[in-house]
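ok trying this again, last paste got cut off
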Amino acid sequence: MNEVRPPTALFAGSDMGERIRAHDWRQSPVGPIHGWPVELVNAVALLLPAAAEIVLFWGEDYVAFYNDAYAPTIGDKHPAALGRPACEAWSELWDDLRPLLDHVRTTGETYAAKDRPFYIERHGYGEEVFFDISYSAVPLSDGRVGGVLCIVSETTERVRAARAVAEDRARLAEMFDAAPSFMAVLREPGHRFELANASYRRLLGGREVVGRTLAESVPEAVEQGFLDLLDTVVTTGTPFFGQNRTLRLAGDDGQGTSERLLDFVYQPIKDAAGTVTGVFVEGIDVTERYRAEEALVASRESLELATEAAEIGTWDADVPARLLSCSTRAKAIFGLPLDRPVTIEDFYNCIHPDDRNMVRAALEATTDPERRANYDVEYRIVRPGTGEIRWLTSKGRAFFNAANECTRALGSLIDVTRRKAAGEKLRESERRFRALSDSLPALVWMSDEHGQTVFANRGFETMLGVAPERMLREGWPAVLCEADLDAFNAARPAFLEQRRSLGRDFLVRTAAGEPRWIHAEVRPHLVGDVFLGHVGCAVDVTDAHLAGAALEARIAERTAELREQIGERERVEETLHQMQRLEAIGQLTSGVAHDFNNLLTVVLGNVDVIARTAQRAGLDERTLTRLDHVRTAAQRGATLTAQLLAFSRRQHLETRTVDLNCLVSGMGALMQSTLGRAIAVETTLADGLWPALVDPTQTELIILNLAINARDAMPDGGTLTVATANVSRQAPERQEEPPAGDYVAVSVSDTGTGMSDEVLARAFEPFFTTKEIGKGSGLGLAQVFGFAKQSGGGVRIDTAPGRGTTVSVFLPRGTAVTAPTAEQVVAPPDVAGRTILVLDDEDAVRSVTADTLREAGCRVIEAADGQGALDALEQLDHVDAVVADFAMPRMNGAQFRVLAQRQRPGLPVLFVTGYADLDAIRDVPDERVIRKPFTRDELVSRLHAICEQPRPGR
């Protein structure tokens, strides 16, 4: 009969069995051993002797039982984990472990996994470990699951080793793909690409070749014999080495080909039996290296040709052997035989005795390993046989080996004898120039293309006490005053870039601080088209400035500045859209005025002739009155064209400084009589009013024009106020206003109806008027605007409906009022007997002008164009003057005058113009210009005046 053994007897024979028997199970959730279920006892007895790593988690608390094989796996958790709930011993991985145990316990299903990762802290630190696991349910007698039997095998080292191998393979693959040489692996049979790195794919233009045969992916290689080479390598098992083999590849679009030069090897890959299973391909693309080598050869040949053409000799010294290899040019320069080797001593013997030591020391310094100086010397040689002395310049460098020994030195040399002679001549010329410039009682200097002073004569020291050396260091800041220095620095970049000339006075200071005035003339220094800088000369003009020239120069300078500002303002304002529109209309009106003036000249001229004829014929008074009506209408048309020219800014302004207070005071009676008794005229004149730079006659017309407009705005009467003021304007708010600056303002104010915003916006448009038809031309304010802008100022209107209007005209500020000149009483002009050439392309104008002069007793010759007039001058013995139209096709009046006065120097020419370009006749005196339409008396008076003036050679 079998003996029943106690449960503890089943645990004997192992370390963990003894620990279980000795453990105090009263503190464990499973209780004492004698109370354990049979299933637990049998499971523990089963796992203890097993060689596999086994742990049993029993009950709802998953109390741990494990064998000796498992104990090392949990490290320092052993033996405390025995008999304790798993959540205590395996707390760091409980969130990962519990779901696995719960699944097996609740479902009864076995869970297995390979290389299952767990995070565990078993040696005092956390680590990731891997296990092959199998979790199985341990059933109870009633069918429930009593525990989970876990059979595990740690695979951490195997997993880590596999990962290391994979990382090594990845690195190798990355290195393979990133290798600068192209590489590929072809597997047999069929030469199918197994691997191809990036360099190989780039070589093939980015083609995808892996998995395809060579014939499929690179058919060009088959045609060029590369497939036959692979077949030979596979058949013989021997590698093939190719150098400078050409591979021609088709373009991506099938058009064109590219050629690459390759160095490569086909290395057979054999299995253990020695059978070739593949071919390893590795090589480099040497195309660029080959091209570089070809370019280097071409460069060397070009260098040899260039040095020969430039008469440059080359030398190459073998320092250890003391031999010197020279080019043909170098031997010819030295006068040495071409077929004989040259030693370094032969070279020294050719050098002039006075230069020999210097050259020897320079070459030794170049070949010395410690100094390694650049070889750059200029020396003389004495040619053998002839004794001729030549100057040479030579440059070179030395080369050293790994032992720091000089192995060779090479360089070039040039015969500079002519250059030395030319340089000596240049230095002699410079010495003469310096001696001459130092003897002048003036400042003489030169600057380079950057404005840096490179020469200054002794005049700076004599005149200003500033040494020339200081001028070379500091330049003009050494003598210019601060104000001029700022302007000098601001204008300097444009002055240099545009290669300008300069002629003006400068205020400078001596070394003692004394102010002096100099007049400087500066011209650009050009050699051909190459700009080398500037050359300048200046003389002391201090005495002239003290005598009053400074004041006149200031006035002239200020006037020029004002004119420049006026021009600049006009240019800026013309860019605005509204001004472009007005400018376009102005060009139209000026053209209309020109043609209208031609018509009016014909009308007025013929009216005068008819009137005089009628008077001599004794016609009735009624006919004469009608002729006066015609004349009056034509004169009104002339006034209208004057307004058109004023708007278009084509009229000629005779500007001078004017006292506007005196001008306004003098117009009082005229305005009162013109405006009528219903209008009260008041004036408000500013004290200390600045002088204005304007045309006084046009200013009076503008004021009268504004006064008449104001009267029309007060149909029931009112008060008109004319005021003057000094005004400093800020930036303009509207395009008709002047730019910022100082102005003298004259304003005309009324108490009339005022203007709406719509009327104000169009107030300056020509031909725009709010008056009834027949009562206004619409040119009044347009004329005011044109006059103000041409004068360099502007206009502003302040108005509101029912509150009246103030029109302010801003005129440029002048410097001093010009004193009026007394009028001279002249006798009635007489031009009878004069021979006058009349030139005009308009037949009607020319005819009336000729008839007027014939009636005045002149002999008249007519010409319809400039060439006809020149031909007439050649045929005439004597001509007193020419009356010439300015605006003509092909040859205008100014061009005719130049050619005519070449034939007859001093020949008087009176220009007739309807609106001529002011810039074109700017240099023509006013007495030699008459504007259409003109009267007989005006024509005869002007003609008489120019004929009476003395002529050259008479």
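PB: full thing came through this time. Residues 575-580, 646-650 have pLDDT under 50 and may be disordered.
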